[in-house]
Design brief:
mainly alpha; two-stranded antiparallel ribbon; 5 helices; 2 strands; rod-shaped; DNA binding; Transcription factor MADS-box
Length: 120
């Protein structure tokens, strides 16, 4: 995690600190190693208005939950689009069958039914 914080700081040219607490609330480790810089960033963070603090705070479980919901919405849209395309294909197949003369209908039915495999 500390390596990623360093990469983020370097790549984005921003100030980053990581404060790691144990289960009992005891301070375990910080990154940056310079405690005065960590203290300065923490003080600036606490002085922000609550709305600004919420923007700057990252909660991994909330982030992942939102990402999963977004992925589910996208999956649902893809399935709806697939169903719509399959329905449209069936309508077009029916129209083609109605437009073809009787002797071509049998060969067309075979070639059109092979298109069904595209959507499976």
């Amino acid at each position: 995690m500390f390596k990623k914080a360093l990469e983020l700081s370097t790549l984005c040219d921003i100030e980053v600190c990581v404060i790691y607490y144990g289960r009992d609330g005891e301070l375990i480790k910080t990154w940056l190693e310079d405690q005065s810089k960590v203290r300065d960033m923490a003080e600036r963070f606490t002085k922000l208005h609550e709305r600004e603090r919420r923007k700057k705070r990252t909660n991994l479980s909330l982030f992942l939950r939102k990402k999963i919901l977004d992925d589910n919405k996208l999956s649902k849209k893809v399935l709806e689009m697939k169903d719509s395309l399959e329905s449209g294909l069936r309508v077009l197949q029916d129209k083609l069958l109605l437009l073809q003369p009787e002797n071509q209908t049998k060969s067309l039915t075979r070639s059109v039914s092979s298109l069904d495999y595209v959507f499976v």
